[in-house]
Amino acid sequence: MPNKSKPTGILVSFEGSEGSGKSTQIARLAQRLQQLGREVVATREPGGTEIGEQIRNIIVHNSKGDEMCAETELLLFTAARAQVVREVIAPALLRGAVVLSDRYLDSSTVYQGIARNLAPDPVNQINRFAVGNVMPDMTIVIDVPTEVSLARIRQRASDLPDRMERENIEFYKKVREGYLLLAQQWPERVVVIDGTQSPDVIEQEIWAGVQERLGLARA
Ligand code: TYD
Q1: Residue of minimum CA distance from atom 13 in ligand 1
Q2: Which residues surround ligand 1 with Cβ inside 6 Å?
Q3: How far apart are the C-alpha atoms of 113 and 121, rounded to whole Å?
Q4: Distance between CA 50 and CA 210 in Å, rounded?
Q5: Which one-letter DSSP state was computed for residue 49?
Q6: Least buried of 76, 80, 113, 199, by fewest C-beta within 10 Å?
Q7: Which of 68, 77, 153, 164 has most ligand 1 atoms within 8 Å of its beta carbon, as the pocket-test mutant?
Q8: How many C-beta neighbours within 10 Å does residue 55 have?
Q9: What is the pLDDT of residues 60-119, one digit of tens each?
């Protein structure tokens, strides 16, 4: 029986700019983990809960979105995060599941803090308030050059680009640099994978990193 007072699960967050291939790799890692008999919970930010999906709509699709100031954006993203942590992630960790989160608190640090230039202290404090003590055990940054990321966004845009996707190249350069900086700051937690490689190679590198850092065995 899992010890109810202590979380036994593992939280892995995936980060990177748009078009970095996070969702493909999350699905592949989920499959490998399930083959080991592990319970896998995949969730995404913003969203992952009904409240979070509504918040996501305000942020990315609201017609007045362009008028949204950076502070509001930060508070909305972190509000969605507070909800998914308590509603989905923390209970799953208590059950012993492996939670794969498509974006987590580093997205706010990088997009709102670094790319939108909000001061680091309040961003970190608000982030920590939102997640409580639920920090990722491992964070996988899939890194692609900004030009590649922008080209992929344009290619896949079946509909009009959303508010975040309309940002200019300078914004996305800051996002990329921000993630690389985080990886330097937190080398025990953050692993950078070269996202220009084939999906199979990326999958293998992620699996090797997960084994090395988390040593996941059969449940
Ligand atoms: P979405 O289409 O859901 O995700 P993705 O690009 O990962 O496929 O859009 C989420 C957008 O919101 C994306 O541009 C990143 C941005 N974002 C932030 O700016 N801050 C945050 O804290 C989070 C979680 C996302």
Answers
A1: 164
A2: 18, 45-46, 60, 77, 102-103, 107-108, 111-112, 164
A3: 9
A4: 30
A5: S
A6: 199
A7: 164
A8: 22
A9: 887 766 789 999 999 999 999 999 999 999 999 999 999 999 999 999 999 999 999 999
